Amino acid sequence: LINDILDLSKVEAGRMEVERIDCEPHRIVREVVKVLGVRARDKGIGLEFSADGPVPAVIQSDPSRLRQIVTNLVGNAIKFTEHGAVRVVIRAAGSVAVPRYEIDVIDSGIGIAADKLDGIFEAFVQADSSVTRRFGGTGLGLAISRRFARALGGDIVVRSEPGVGSTFAVMLDAGPLAGVKLLRPAEACELDVDVADEEQARWDFPSARILVVDDGAENRELVRLVLEENGLTVDEAENGQIAVDKAVATRYDVILMDMSMPVMDGYTATRTLRQKGHKTPIFALTAHAMAGFEKEVLAAGCTGYVTKPIDIDVLLGALAEKLGGKRVHGEPVARRPAAPQSAAPKSAAPVKPAPVAIAQRAETAPRASDAPVLSSYANQERMWSILGRFAARLDEQLAAMDQTYAALDFPALASLAHWLKGAGGTVGYHAFTDPARTLEDCAKAGDGPGAGAALRELHHLAGRLVVPGEKQAATAAA
Ligand code: ADP
Q1: Which of 73, 85, 411, 424 is disulfide-compatible with 46, CB 3.0–4.6 A?
Q2: Residue 210 C-alpha to ligand 1 middle, in angstroms?
């Protein structure tokens, strides 16, 4: 609730920042559909995804806000539907001069009375108070979603008939689309084939040894997992000094170097290695992809850089270029129904190929109205163990934050918040980044109330964290 209110008050104060960057709505919808598919299946209703004609592959919008909107609407649709199905339909709309993108969320649920339709977009309004008793909820989801949609040059409108169902239509300004590829409906919406493709796209690297230098254990672990999966050998160092020592003792084919680290930072480590005559390619890993930054890392002797949170494909692409790796696609057929999942020993071969064994954490009775906090890696089964480890670590770190907060130990609190600011996004839980940054800032400034609010927001997010593949564990716990 606090999280929603903070979001809303930012929106009302006009401080809502929305981005206009490359954004692939069909992918976002597909991910939400896959993840929430579990809830629909648990309720015995369908969840379908289709496109009404060709859609642009990319628009200019705000991916995380869009994900929030779609998650809210699809979550509501499932919540208020007992029979039939929820359908999500995407389409290109508008004109060549003013291109738009539309997403309809259509359900066959309880519907909304005509005199209540306007009110539901107001904060804290619910169509029917008995609904709250039955379904829970805060009455904030739609208020926030509509404000986001409006900030993105669009709107959300609703049509509904009690007892028949509702359609929530999201319209977005798509931004200029000249030169953007159009996807056929099958390409945009094919859940299974694409998952297979995405998950099984692998790089074929010659044998090579990589040194991963980062003070964040999650970062190192993430990178190690991905690189090892692609046949590379990985060593780790947690600061620049250890990196220099290791690089002097062992020949590495590439060094991945975080720039800001305790003891010795990446700039110094890189300069030191270059002074010692080391020619090994060194890629800077950094959160600061700001103007002028590129010059700085190159001046220190880096070969190039990869921005954090790390995009796995970008990282592998950069390594492939240096090491002579080739992209190879696994056979998508391996993921088709009935075929055994060779790459996924953890789950018994499911009837549906999409890996969607999702469980709510830390909630014995999940409040269906609260938007789940999802990792952008939720659909990649190879990431699940890392997401689980992050979740466990998060619990510990939040407990430590509570303690330092209670003890008014602001420096310690700031450093815990700093960890979360980087670690959450690294494993695709981007929702933590902003509140963790706020917490770090407040702790540094000695702003107790501010830190307390940010900490509560983080707890609220953590309570809604969804870890794929934890279903059995969570059910057993509940
Ligand atoms: P809540 O957290 O209560 O779900 P929302 O702002 O998301 O808050 O929704 C406000 C109200 O709108 C809900 O309480 C419900 O009465 C109504 N509503 C939203 N979506 C639907 C839907 N798909 N079908 C029926 N009623 C809905």
Answers
A1: 85
A2: 51
